[in-house]
Amino acid sequence: MGWRGLLRVVDFQALLSSQPLVASALDKAQHAGGTRSPEAKALREGYHLLAKVLWTRRASIQRIHDLAWLDHTVVSAGARLGRVWENEEGVHAVRAAEDALPPDVAPELFPQEGATWLEVPVQAYAGISPIVKLERGVSGPYRVGIVPEARLRAWYEAAGTAKFSAPPGATSVLGEIEALAAAARRAGGPSVSLVFAASSLEDFPAE
């Protein structure tokens, strides 16, 4: 089973303002491996993704997924603000954590179906709305959860409480949620969120 899930603190203001950084990484990748190298292709797509979201002020489930991974691998790669789980073992660990959380809380970070939209303030260019709309939910092989700043404390407390009575398979995930929610609260700012971005690779269309 090809699956991976990322839990990460994302500052959407910093991420959506990172085109110069991504452009620099792209330039280095092209010099090192050529313009058609997989790394250069991925960075080029990331650069264009940032531009699209900035101008449209909207990010779908798939775009949020890709933005979170871009932040994790390029924009804030040196920051210890994310945790990755992979394959069947990761699926079971995340599912165990979901089951241990209160049912009225869990869908924010681990949605089961459908989609909802959130609004996050991100300053960009003069004359453009300071609000970016972010979609969370399930779409095809993509699953995205977002906990906005206003809900971080509730998630910190919920994960901490659930951890004490959760089965062993869930405690590591709940511990990461608790720690990253605390880190997001320390970072402060209305554009900071806790994001879960997962994808099932077996469902991806063949290239």
Please give the number of β-strands.
Answer: 7
How is the main sheet built?
Answer: 7 strands, mixed
Mean pLDDT: 92
Strand content: 15-25%
The oligomeric state is: single chain
Integer-rounded radius of gyration:
17 Å
The low-confidence parts are 203-207
Number of separate structural domains: 1
Distance between the termini: 18 Å
Give helix % range: 40-55%
Give the helices and strands as they follow along the chain: EHHHEHEHHEEEHHE
User: What is the 3D form?
Assistant: globular
Structural class: alpha+beta
Number of helices, counting only DSSP H or I runs of 4 residues or more: 8
Describe the model.
By secondary structure, the chain is of the alpha+beta class. It has one domain. The protein contains 8 helices and 7 strands, in the order E-H-H-H-E-H-E-H-H-E-E-E-H-H-E. Strands 1, 2, 3, 4, 5, 6 and 7 form a 7-stranded mixed sheet that branches. Helix 2 runs antiparallel to helix 3, helix 5 packs across helix 8 and helix 7 packs antiparallel against helix 8.
Keywords for this structure?
single chain; 207 residues; 50% helix; disordered C terminus; alpha+beta
Q: In terms of topology, how is this protein built?
A:
Blueprint: E1 3-11, H1 12-15, H2 19-33, H3 38-56, E2 58-59, H4 61-75, E3 82-86, H5 87-100, H6 106-109, E4 115-121, E5 131-139, E6 142-147, H7 152-163, H8 168-187, E7 192-200
Parallel strand pairs: 2-5
Antiparallel strand pairs: 1-3, 1-7, 4-5, 5-6, 6-7
Helix pairs in contact: 2-3, 3-4, 5-8, 7-8
